[in-house]
Amino acid sequence: MSAEDLEKYETEMELQLYREYRDVLGLFTYVVETERRFYLTNSVDLQVRSVDNGEVFFEVTMQDAWVWDMYRPARFVKNVRVVTFKDVNVEELAKSEFELPSNQ
Fold first, then answer.
1. Among residues of the chain, what percentage have pLDDT more than 90?
2. Sequence-distant (≥ 6) Cβ neighbours of residue 55 within 8 angstroms
3. Residue (of 44, 42, 39) closest to 72 by Cα position
4. 38: Cα separation from own chain's centroid
5. Can you name the residues that pair with 39 across neighbouring β-strands?
6. Whether 46 contacts 33, CB under 8 Å
7. What is the pTM of this model?
8. In terms of domain of life, where is this protein from (predicted)?
9. 18-44 burial string, b = 16+ CB within 10 Å, else e?
């Protein structure tokens, strides 16, 4: 496989992933972004924890999530638990942005 073939394959995979993301976005309430992954979910719990030396870390749990990862064979995940010392971003999606206009 040439470098050009590989690049074409990865571009196609990214396009397929974007299309899937666009199709499922309206099903979810929250976007969760961690250092390594991007998730869509309807249930997220973010806990701030600290260890004895004063360092702070985050524990994020999600149920029935969709994960942005083109290398996963299945992107829907029943339960997710992320533990990280890096930033975590949780945003609630505005449902009105994704509703189709009604025909009158």
1. 71
2. 85
3. 39
4. 3
5. 32, 67
6. no
7. 0.80
8. Bacteria
9. eeeeeeeeeebebbbebeeeebbbeeb
